């Protein structure tokens, strides 16, 4: 087999591979996708990005890559306006990030996040403050430690309150 035959064979096997699935609880649905797409699909998205139309590129990637369980497109070009104006941007960005990355990248990041308590803390701080992870990673060690202590105190207070509620409800039953 020639090198070009090997290239085509490899790509064909990626295109015919199993559908991957992501759950989108906000939309009460699952989105299916393939880990590879024809360059024509990718070039349309790249073109929009290069034109400075980042949001449109994200939505376009969802329209072109999101599939139903049978592998049929979940959206059409006619859904673009609604997705751009009537859908939660955070959900769209999360979906687009997964659809535009390789599955193995997503899975490795997810695995790292599950195992790395320091990274979990950074994400929790970012969420609490409404900041990006990159911004929080610029914090000093002291700031991160203060947040860690604060979250620990908060958790203990909640546990104590639940313990007191359980005790009080047992007393009122007597």
What does this structure look like?
The chain has 174 residues and is mostly helical. The protein has 2 domains: 3-105, Phage tail assembly chaperone gp13-like (rbstp2171, 2-Layer Sandwich); 117-173. It has 9 helices and 2 strands; from the N terminus they run H-E-E-H-H-H-H-H-H-H-H. A two-stranded antiparallel ribbon has the order 1-2. A hairpin with a 4-residue loop joins strand 1 and strand 2 (29-33). Helix 2 (39-50) runs antiparallel to helix 3 (54-65) and helix 3 (54-65) packs across helix 5 (89-99). The radius of gyration is 22 Å and the shape is elongated. It starts with a helix and ends with a helix.
Provide keyphrases for this structure.
single chain, 174 residues, mainly alpha, rbstp2171, two-stranded antiparallel ribbon, 6% strand, elongated
Give the H and E element order: HEEHHHHHHHH
CATH class descriptor of the largest domain: Alpha Beta
Distance between the ends: 83 Å
Largest sheet: 2 strands, antiparallel
Q: Work out the radius of gyration.
A: 22 Å
Major sheet: arrangement of strands: 1-2
The count of domains is 2
The secondary structure category is mainly alpha
Low-pLDDT runs of 5+ residues are: none
Strand content: 5-15%
CATH architecture of the largest domain: 2-Layer Sandwich
Tally of DSSP helical segments: 9
CATH superfamily of the largest domain: Phage tail assembly chaperone gp13-like
Mean pLDDT: 86
């Amino acid at each position: 087999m020639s090198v070009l035959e090997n290239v085509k064979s490899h790509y064909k096997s990626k295109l015919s591979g199993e559908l991957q699935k992501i759950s989108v609880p906000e939309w009460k649905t699952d989105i299916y996708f393939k880990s590879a797409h024809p360059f024509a699909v990718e070039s349309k998205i790249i073109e929009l990005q290069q034109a400075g139309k980042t949001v449109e590129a994200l939505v376009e990637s969802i329209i072109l890559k999101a599939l139903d369980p049978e592998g049929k497109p979940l959206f059409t070009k006619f859904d673009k306006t609604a997705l751009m104006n009537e859908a939660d941007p955070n959900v769209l960005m999360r979906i687009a990030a997964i659809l535009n990355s390789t599955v193995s990248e997503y899975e490795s990041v997810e695995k790292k996040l599950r195992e790395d308590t320091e990274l979990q803390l950074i994400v929790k701080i970012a969420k609490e403050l409404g900041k990006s992870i990159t911004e929080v990673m610029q914090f000093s060690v002291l700031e991160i430690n203060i947040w860690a202590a604060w979250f620990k105190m908060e958790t203990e207070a909640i546990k104590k309150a639940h313990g007191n509620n359980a005790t009080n409800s047992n007393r009122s039953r007597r």
